[in-house]
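Request:
Um, any thoughts?
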Amino acid sequence: MNSTNYDWIDISVPLRNGMVHWPGDEPFHRKLDKDQGKGDDCTLSSMKLSVHTGTHMDAPRHYLPGAPTIDEVPLDATVGAARVIAIRNREAVTREELLEYSIKDGERILFKTANSDRLWSSDAFQADFVYIDRDAADYLAQLGVRCVGIDYLSVDGYSQDDAETHIALLGAGVWVIEGLNLSGVEAGDYELICLPLRLMGSEGSPARAIIRPVEVVSD
């Protein structure tokens, strides 16, 4: 057997002024401080944003006091073999649906839901996104998955004030990627590279995520 590697696919959300953000968080804003087009000696920008802007990672410290911060993420947590699972349920990722996929200890799992094709085209926040329910989060934690990714701004539903899904995953050492765009990506096996900024002591960070499909073929 051998594997055939294809082109990398960027599954990150572009950062730009006016983009969707979580209600109450700092909106993304990039300001041009120097502009060669206006006679300055160089072009220079500054940014203002939440560390949970667009495609980003959550560290356990996000909800668990004293827990690891984003600069402590093991590099192999979000770099390596990954599986994209297409979720049919248009409300939540559930344990019942996950039982079909024989998820194993140590896997990196990215959930493609109705979010990818429905929500990223809007700059307005959409509260009815597909999330991971608590029972599914407990199941993933029990399985010992390495990381979990979701294709909108939170693994918790908008109405879940107690952040129970975050706590179930992060408390079990499952690293969380939020804000992926898996539109046009088929379910299957991939290589994943997702790295946050090395923000010392931070509970999260923007990230760039790319995947490359791996097709196993017979000799």
